[in-house]
Design brief:
Two copies of one chain form a homodimer. By secondary structure, the first copy, chain A, is an alpha+beta fold. Chain A has 14 helices and 20 strands.
Chain lengths: ~500, ~500
């Protein structure tokens, strides 16, 4: 094969492989109908009454939690919060509650043995984001009530992400035990103090209780599931992610090694910046929207019929959501001109390759002529079933090597596979039945476009569900809040109702 | 033509055009021999004696100049220095010395009418670089003498770049006039106060005296031409440059407009960062060393026979200079594996395309998942005869447009064409004859790989020569100095000899 022909075939490769992109389409018109699931019929009036009578104490318990700093990024109050959680679990009756040391912040685990047939795992995070320097109307760790346009609110760091929902859940547990003597199911609490850091050591915490975890029927993540209008969305999955840095540096192959050199030497010196640009460019189509790494789309499975039914249930709302989403993201046109069904399918069922950042050389104002000795990019890929971080990275490395970019270093920064829960899982069905009891039939979504490390549970075949009612907002932002007493006419649940929902859910799961 | 075929041809285009790169080669083995030029035989003993007797005053004049701040970037002392230069010129006898207002800092021009047949233009810069925050052993504007490993030195900002050589030149003029009553040639001084800013308004200064400039026989730029060993290199040209920013932004074509969005939205949103990477990648070969913009090499003329003779004169030294240059630039391998003659030819006679900087999105430590709304690169191209900044930029724009990158913005930051002086120009020949008189036969180089805006003179057909003896270093660095009294045994000229060289040169040019 002569050189031109070889080059030709190489150049054509992207065209060929671009066509391997999965054709995302719907093969059924059936739609998942959450409203058709029979509302939960249980009534646990004594427990409800107990909750109603204990509201001052229950709110105080939440306030006690948000007043305890637990900023994982700054290591502020982390161990104190872990200890507070452990002690609360012990007081409730968790016999084996303990801190689990990790290479980072400790986890907390605890097992409540109700002597029940079924065991539910409860995933918790006890850490919070750092406090923003500006914008807070109150002290972020004072845990004070304020008047909010939606009603009376507890405004504090952690109010909604995630101490509010979690301590509300514990309030529900205490109420059940106070009235009935024990819980309707066994509970295995698994908490981490590094969620805001990307859960780097959570697998170490999970390993500690893996035997017990294999016995549970599902995993609950307490959250406030209502938006400002009171609507509930139930999400059944998350994408995975692989995050890495690609770097070109001067070295044996060429380019200045230790420091930048004068720009005029480009005439005779290789440029790591060009090298990185060329290596990156080899990964996608010219519009940056199709990954041309051979095999990258191969492991993506088409949406299951069940997932398609959920998608179909979303599509009615989608045409009205699309314009507001466009506005919120400040976008004039979606990638590839997609709209409607195609847009939604690619959003939730397609993998990505994204440049989070790139830098090299002089980036200040005006003119400076240098040949930088180093160029770096941060790149992430969102992963859908059945992609894995290992295989994604292997394919990228293999492609770069085959294209001759063996000099480009790849540094893995983190990653985990996607996680998926079936809409037909009893945990999901029973949660929907409880939502329906409260007149809050949820919209379902098969998956978030974002990522979370739920694979630690789903890899064991466990369904995972973030569930709850109530409303909060401002996670990772100033003036984070949870609504305690919504205004008259709101569909949002107040604190006692938030707790009653969890009571019902635990009995429904029995 | 079907789509695949069209795409195929488009993809092949770079291969085709890459082969248009000029084949730089030598067609003569003749070598320029500076030693064969007869040494200047003039002796101007009365003037030399006058210089020797005035050394305290002459050094004081240089100190007066370096003590006057003139930091163009910070607008510190600029007008005061321009006024000092003008007043000095008037005192010497320049009748029309005056400040020339520009859109930036003023220029200074002056004409000395000796009633001579010939007129020499003298290019000067009166501005200096800002002072580095750290590393200075003395106050940068105190103008003090220090002991240096090479001898006694004046250590100050501007000592070598460029006040030292310039005021030494004026000392020579004063001495000639004091002894002989007038200069042997008419002089047209053209000075700017923005050299360190890239000479953005120098054409405005030149325009002021363009009529007179058309009458001159050449342009002299006073400098200290000796290195630490006392060797002299005479440089006959500079590359031009075009410097621009390339930017991709969200907009009608896609991508977030006002701000970054969450990285997971890459699934449905175009990425300006990918777009910039792809546009940049379309400009070069995969190794970044060959420009694949069609026509980019077309206007490059081969080295003339005269230039080849100068190259041949360099080649003897080149094999020994190459390793030390490699070490100084911290490079293990030259681009394309070039060595020897090919390396030198490409260094001096080839154009470049260089990424000076690139930036987009998150560039801090760790992981942050965003889709940036903007990506920018600083790019420069060094230009050789007969390239022009306008044509270079037009070809790049045209190529981007033809490849579909019409959305990529190009912002011109500055640029000017290359400049070349012939080795056979009388100014060059006579300067060499004076160097030979001092036993300092210069090495010649046909061109610097770097750039300077000498085109303002050479476009008028004028030879331009930076010439002088003496030694200084540390331009744009702490502890800038000029050697006033070299140690015993040094081949470097002391201050009186520096001035006598200029005396001889002016008489030689008569």
């Amino acid at each position: 094969m002569n050189r031109t022909l070889a080059a030709l075939l190489l150049l054509l490769a992207p065209l060929t492989f671009a066509q391997q992109r999965p054709d995302l389409k719907l093969t059924t018109t059936e739609s998942f109908d959450a409203a058709s699931i029979r509302p939960y019929r249980g009534r646990h009036q004594k427990i409800y009454d107990y909750i109603d009578a204990r509201q001052a104490e229950h709110l105080a318990a939440i306030q006690r939690w948000v007043r305890q700093r637990s900023i994982s990024a700054l290591n502020e109050g982390v161990t104190d919060m872990a200890t507070m959680l452990r002690d609360d679990l012990r007081r409730i009756g968790f016999k084996d509650a303990e801190l689990v040391p990790t290479s980072g912040h400790p986890g907390v685990v605890g097992f409540y043995d109700a002597g029940a047939k079924k065991t539910l795992a409860v995933y918790m995070m006890y850490d919070v984001q750092p406090v923003e320097a500006e914008g807070w109307k109150v002290e972020a760790f004072d845990g004070v009530l304020v008047d909010h346009d939606l009603g009376r609110a507890l405004m504090a760091r952690g109010a909604t992400n995630q101490k509010g929902p979690e301590r509300s859940f514990l309030n529900a547990l205490e109420s059940i035990i106070a009235v009935e003597g024990k819980l309707p199911v066994n509970l295995l609490v698994i908490a981490e103090g590094e969620e805001e850091l990307g859960s780097p050591h959570f697998p170490e915490v999970v390993a500690k209780v893996e035997e017990r975890l294999r016995q549970v029927s599902g995993v609950l993540f307490p959250m406030f599931g209502q938006d400002r209008q009171g609507n509930v969305t139930v999400n059944l999955g998350v994408k995975g992610i692989v995050y890495f840095e690609m770097e070109a540096k001067g070295g044996e192959r060429g380019g200045p090694v230790g420091a930048e050199v004068h720009g005029s030497t480009k005439a005779i010196i290789d440029s790591p910046a060009w090298r990185l640009v060329q290596a990156l460019a080899s990964l996608t189509s010219e519009d940056g929207n199709t990954i041309v790494v051979p095999g990258y789309y191969d492991s993506i499975r088409p949406p299951t019929v069940e997932e398609q039914r959920v998608i179909n249930s979303m599509l009615r709302e989608w045409s009205s959501r699309e314009p507001s989403m466009k506005e919120a993201l400040d976008v004039r046109r979606w990638a590839n001109g997609w709209t409607g069904e195609q847009l939604l399918l690619h959003y939730l069922f397609d993998t990505t390759l994204n440049i989070d950042g790139i830098w090299s050389g002089y980036t200040g104002p005006g003119v400076k002529t240098i040949l930088p000795h180093k160029a770096t990019a941060k790149v992430d890929s969102r992963l859908v079933p059945d992609q894995t971080p290992e295989e994604a990275l292997r394919l990228i490395r293999q492609h770069l090597d085959r294209q001759g970019f063996t000099d480009i270093e790849i540094r893995l920064m983190g990653g985990y596979p996607p996680a998926q829960t079936s809409a037909s899982a009893p945990l999901v069905q029973q949660a929907i039945s409880v939502y329906n009891k409260y007149g809050l039939t949820p919209a379902l979504t098969p998956r978030l476009a974002g990522s979370a490390p739920y694979y630690v549970f789903t890899r064991l075949g466990l369904p995972l569900l973030a569930a709850g009612i109530g409303h909060g907002s401002g996670a990772h932002a100033p003036n984070e809040y949870m609504l305690v007493n919504p205004k008259e006419g709101s569909r949002i649940a107040n604190l006692p109702t938030i707790e009653k929902f969890y009571v019902d859910l635990l009995y429904a799961l029995r």
